[in-house]
Amino acid sequence: MAIDLFSFNDEGAVISEINMTPLVDVMLVLLVVFMVTLPVIHDAAHVQVPHASNQREDLRTAHVDVAINAAGKMRWNGEALDDSTVIERLAAAAKIAPQPEIRLAADRDVRYESVARLLSAAQSAGLSKVGFVTDPNAM
After folding, report:
1. pTM over 0.85
2. Buried b (16+ CB within 10 A) or exposed e, 71-106
3. Contact 65, 105 (CB under 8 A)
4. What is the pLDDT of residues 85-103, one digit of tens each?
5. Least buried of 1, 92, 116, 138, by fewest C-beta within 10 Å?
């Protein structure tokens, strides 16, 4: 014969239902507390914010155009230079704040060795922004 533990009829029996009344009472009290304190907290701090001009910032970065022709000769902003002068100019450009972007335009027939030497020299000088100039209509 099985015994059902939750079917006692006397007053000491276990109640198997959850009493929701205390939970609802606590929630209503919290709601009232938040409704009363929220406007007080919202208006508590009066801050005078600073005014600033709304002029647009010039976002164009400084750049240096470096071109390498098919023979491997370099030009710095249109001026023909030898390798040692280019390395000196890269070191000087690295000291400028903010650093200029190097825009590299290499001939399609130039040896990769010339481009790699220029990129290595730029990295050694401390320049991190290098862009490659291409012709989008050449396809």
Report:
1. no
2. ebebebeeeebeeeebbebbeebbeeeebebbbbeb
3. yes
4. 988 999 999 888 888 899 9
5. 1
